[in-house]
Amino acid sequence: MKLRLICVGQKMPDWVSAGYQDYARRMPPELPLELTEIPMAHRGKNPDIPRLMQRESDAILASVGQRDRVVALEVGGKPWSTEKLAGQLESWQQEGQDICFLVGGPDGLAGACRQRADQQWSLSPLTLPHPLVRIVLAEQLYRAWSITRNHPYHRA
Q1: What is the pLDDT of residue 89?
Q2: pTM of the predicted model, to two decimals?
Q3: Structural domain contains residue 153
Q4: Does 81 count as an annotated binding residue?
Q5: Is 126 annotated in some ligand binding site?
Q6: Is the terminal CB of the chain with fewer CB neighbours within 10 Å at N or C?
Q7: Is 82 annotated among the ligand-binding residues?
């Protein structure tokens, strides 16, 4: 089983890449965390945002496997505690499907991504910059795994 983070945006600042990679490296071999970066559609003067979001959505969905479980990160999704995420992680591991976490660009995810999603999850009611979401998500996945293994990283 793989955990795949599919994000809109490339060429992140070094601190974003370093933060994400730090947690991705900590994941165990049986639960690797992989990153797929989708190019953000160019937003020139007077952009057609719905069309650009659809283009990004098409590229995101092309990266999702037919049998993958999809979790869309949405401000309006269900909030999960870290313990709830750990329970979800155990459940997903029992199912054995790869899990794809979808993170949109500055304008969010298009409707097609939300429709393809098996679940919608909100990391926070706050609006987070999409580069920061990569780090927060990677850290929370590592923390959830540490809970399932009674690893000392998580001290509630």
Answers
A1: 96
A2: 0.92
A3: no
A4: no
A5: yes
A6: C
A7: no
